[in-house]
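Please complete every field before forwarding. Incomplete forms are returned to the sender.

SECTION A: IDENTIFIERS
Entry label: holo-376
Bound molecule: pyridoxal-5'-phosphate
Molecule representation: SMILES string

SECTION B: INPUTS
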Amino acid sequence: MEFIDLGAQQARIKDKIDARIQAVLKHGKYIMGPEVAELEKGLSAFCGSPLQALTCSNGTDAISLVLMAMGIGPGDAVIVPSFTFAATAEVVALQRATPVFADVLADTFNMDPESLKKAIEVAKQQGLKPKAVITVDLFGQPADYDVIEPIAAQHGLALICDAAQGFGGVYKGRKVGTIGAATTTSFFPAKPLGCYGDGGAVFTADKAIDETMKSLRVHGKGTDKYDNARVGLNARLDTLQAGILIEKLAIFGDEVEARNRVADRYAAAFAGHNEIIAPKVLEGCVSSWAQYTLRLPAAKRDAVSAALAKQGVPSVVYYPLPLHMQNAYKMHPRGGDIAVSERLAKEVLSLPMHPYLDEPTQDKVIAAVLEAIATV
Ligand SMILES: *Cc1c(COP(=O)(O)O)cnc(C)c1O
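SECTION C: PREDICTED COMPLEX
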């Protein structure tokens, strides 16, 4: 059994992907070939709004491009959740700005608005200028934007949505990609929309930010590649990956629906269990289910995972240590205590989740989880 079955997806569209790869080999425009612009058009169309989609090298550089285009640097604070993948805080530190950690909510795993407010105050007390907040759509569920947007607006913070896991989701009628000053995503193979290598994208309706990022992703180019207007990055998406993504994007909406059918069956199986807390999706929201993550009693979590492995059922802990406790980040300020992130790190366990998880296989996962929790 696979934790994420990329082979099943490939079998579905193998001919189309092969044809795309052959087309690129034939025209030979490996860097910024025509597939890159075609994909960017397709990505903005998927979000159904006139925003710009800019592809780039990966989901980490996507956030860096936004921070750089916004001119965020030393002396600036950027509020980030502690319970996330390291890239969310890493990009802030790389710009020599200060990440300030906020806690998350136990039921959605997403940023706690009260902790965000505290983090803004802490940043100011430390003499930093709060410039932006990076929300994370953790495990695929959009953060609670109706609550976070007014806080960001009141304090003059730019809202940057890290949707590396959340692309394909919907927040109360708004597609992920259309929210905030900019939304970033990742096409790492295991993400909901993944390519066959590294890739990423930024979505923004802000033409000035978009123009600056276009320069930044090619070494800060000016009128041409050998005119250097600013210090930038080499952050382009490969043409081959763009070609592959065009075909994957064509079935992505259908795959998000399939993931939701899998999630609904998991939710029905675990509903009402006294030791298993299934993930909660906010009213009116659609998760892209990058992960299906249970909360289990901390004392049992590792034993359950080991029992599942014995049954041939893979499970993974995302994330075992919150960022404010990591050696690389523990010196940075926090908006109060980060107790929920610390607790979740001990309780979470992610189960196999992908669009091609058939019902018999899923039933095996469910039976193995129920047996493990009853016996460990
Ligand atoms: C994967 C991920 C990233 C980084 O994306 P890469 O393409 O691997 O650079 C950033 N933030 C979150 C929340 C992620 O899950």
